[in-house]
Amino acid sequence: MNRVFYRDLIEHDHVYTDSGDDEIGLMMRSSFKSGLCPVCIRETFIYRHIPEDQTPPPEPYQHYSIIQPVMLVCGNCGWWQSKAICVTKSHPFLPKFEGQDSEWAYSYHPVIELVDITSNKVAIADIRQHLLRNWEDRKLISAGKAESLVESLLKEHLNCDVFSSTANVNKADGGIDLFVAHENGQIKAAVQVKRRITKNVEPVTEVRNFVGALAIENIQKGIFVTTAERYSSVAKDIPEKLNSRLELDLISGKELFEILQCFTKPDDLVIPPYVKLDMVWKDIRGNSYNLEEILNV
């Protein structure tokens, strides 16, 4: 399934002159009037920020007294665009502006990329960023990408090298997906990863099978990771029953998300320079929203 990623910010300068030099900018201007998204031709929602203070705008726009940012957001594809409505004040050299409202010279929109998170070609960095905001979508990623995700997180969480058990080897994993190694290359632990689509509770069966794989390979420590929300009570008892024979750590989906939060820094929102994260925005009904709610991130 495709998910939206903001990659960059595009600026359009003085497109309201209708010169025709900036076709995309003119298309954006037209969509503000029509209320339709220029990308997917669906309905858009308009949000305005009305400043409480009278902070002067930056140079060279000092003849404006108030900048009122406006966001137009598509409810279908997530694409957005922004401009500013400027209320002018008296200026000795610009009498024609007095008492009028005007669009600011610059308008902005992001470059949006649709990324198929179910694909085996999707970058782990994109998966981490997306799951940071949409953890439920972990059920949509492939089993292979779930292993790669866990591999990338455990490297940072354990501060050790983590690699696939089948790396460069054309054979089954034998019940072990990953190995954790010391700096000298010695195997420290084995890892099993289970990506669950419908199960919210990890049963005991796979945990027992993993313990058997550890015994066969003579590995003294195992880490079982599931994307299910939690383990069954019987499964949670396994590590204690093993006593000193071997060490077993169980990482649930809830705990995996906590590790993701610790080691994944959210990408900065791609926003226009006159937009601040703490701004309050209002829709046409007067309901208030923050910027993250508007952009659904």
Written description of the protein model:
With 297 residues, this protein is an alpha+beta fold. It folds into two domains: 2-116 and 268-295, no CATH class; 124-263, Trna Endonuclease, Chain: A, domain 1, CATH 3.40.1350. Helices cover 26% and strands 29% of the residues. The chain has helices at 23-34, 124-133, 143-158, 204-217, 233-241, 253-263, 291-295, and strands at residues 2-13, 44-48, 64-74, 80-88, 101-103, 106-116, 161-164, 178-181, 187-194, 201-202, 221-226, 230-231, 247-251, 281-282, 288-289. Helix 3 (143-158) crosses helix 6 and helix 4 (204-217) runs parallel beside helix 5 (233-241). The two termini are 17 Å apart. 28% of the residues are buried. Residues 90-100 and 168-172 have low confidence and may be disordered.
